[in-house]
Design a protein that fits this description.
The protein is an alpha+beta fold. The chain has eleven helices and 19 strands.
Length: 391
């Protein structure tokens, strides 16, 4: 069978390798100058390929995600990576990386596997039209070249997905939900520019009014516009998903800057320091970054008197009002995509095109979960097509 895959990211390349292993003739079209550009940039250049702690709870409420993850395991995904020559390891958080800690390893191994299997990769080929006549497809790219195929598989990433939804090039616009950037920094209404560039271990809570919507732990990175870092990215996933569902942007983020200290323990420590004659500048020395301490003191100002409880409250409940999610140019993933109702059990759309990876309405938390789904969706498609996963 002749298969044409649109998109040279994780899902497209995994699908290409597996389809070629099953004996199909495969052509892969990539709009960029090279395949795997987003893979090469992932994980700060290390490529967080998977997470051994993956569960359905790491994703939005999607019947497609439940179907794919219910049939394809983390072990099967890692076995695929090993089958193309990548040796992996998992860190203490369950995040899976290549032992080289270099994302180009992943791109190279995918490219070499495609070469060995005879996959025809054509870059700088933006798809502008897909015609379905009888049992075959004609795929037209921007330079006018036309490709014939028995099956067309859309495996387009964030930027392509948005363009497809806006221009309805080959997937009808009505198939898509609204699209929002996710796993992105968060702009706040009251940023403190003095904190720009400072990192701090913390616990974070996202609230709407008094309702707790999500919690995360890890490292926050303060920016001049607001907040970044992995735990911020995880909270952005909840905001983005609620935006897809039509919820208003009305949230606060509460940060515990001293998660290893209980509130009363911190109060007692500060009271002892005040009694021992510590100045304002010395009060948080050895506990917090001096710039963070400066902001806490400013937020808790009570004249010349130092109040240990107010200071502890500020450090344990460091609150920001959310302004907006930073845009698609900062996001790792897109929330939204082709709605579940248009995707059948084989990942086929009503127009006969198959869809994999991020173009579907599936998004996960930060930590390898999105690449896991991209890999798993490609393996699931191939399993449905060929009855087994080839290695």
């Amino acid at each position: 069978m002749k298969k044409l895959i649109i998109g040279g990211g994780v899902s497209g390349l995994v699908c290409a390798v597996q389809s070629a292993r099953a004996g199909h003739s495969v052509t892969l079209l990539e709009a960029d100058k090279r395949i795997g550009k987003k893979i090469a940039a992932s994980g700060n250049g290390r490529c967080n390929m998977d997470n051994i702690n993956t569960t359905i709870e790491c994703y939005n409420n999607s019947s497609v995600a439940r179907r794919v993850l219910g049939n394809i395991s983390v072990k099967q995904c890692i076995s695929f990576w090993e089958s193309i020559g990548i040796v992996t390891y998992a860190d203490s958080f369950g995040r899976v990386y290549p032992v080289t800690d270099n994302s180009h390893t992943v791109v190279d191994c995918l490219r070499y596997a495609c070469q060995r299997l005879g996959v025809n990769i054509v870059c700088e080929s933006k798809v502008v039209e897909v015609k379905h006549t009888g049992n075959t497809f004609a795929v037209v790219v921007s330079n006018g070249t036309q490709y014939k195929a028995d099956q067309v598989i859309a495996a387009c990433g964030s930027n392509s997905q948005i363009k497809i939804a806006e221009h309805s090039n080959f997937i009808p616009k009505q198939y898509f939900t609204s699209l929002n950037p996710t796993l992105t920094p968060i702009a706040v209404k009251n940023p403190e520019v003095v904190l720009n560039g400072i990192r701090s271990k913390c616990n974070m809570v996202l609230k709407s009014g008094n309702t707790v919507l999500a919690k995360s732990s890890g490292e926050v990175l303060f920016r001049e516009y607001g907040l970044s870092g992995i735990c911020t990215m995880d909270l952005s996933a909840t905001i983005a998903r609620r935006s897809v569902e039509g919820q208003a942007m009305d949230y606060t983020i509460e940060i515990d800057l001293l998660p290893t200290l209980e509130y009363n323990e911190l109060v007692n420590m500060l009271q002892r320091r005040i009694a021992d004659g510590y100045s304002k500048e010395q009060l948080f020395c050895g506990i917090l970054h001096n710039k963070v301490a400066e902001v806490i003191l400013k937020r808790s100002a009570t004249g010349s008197t130092l109040n240990a409880k107010k200071l502890a409250d500020s450090a344990k409940h460091f609150v920001y009002q959310v302004d907006k999610l930073c845009g698609f140019q900062y996001s790792q993933v897109t929330a939204g995509g082709i709605a579940d109702q248009y995707v059948d059990d084989n990942l086929r759309l009503p127009n006969g095109i198959y869809a994999l990876g991020e173009i579907l309405d599936v998004d996960g938390l930060c930590g390898g979960y999105n690449i896991h789904f991209a890999t798993a969706s490609a393996l699931y498609y191939c399993l449905k097509q060929d009855g087994k996963i080839y290695d």
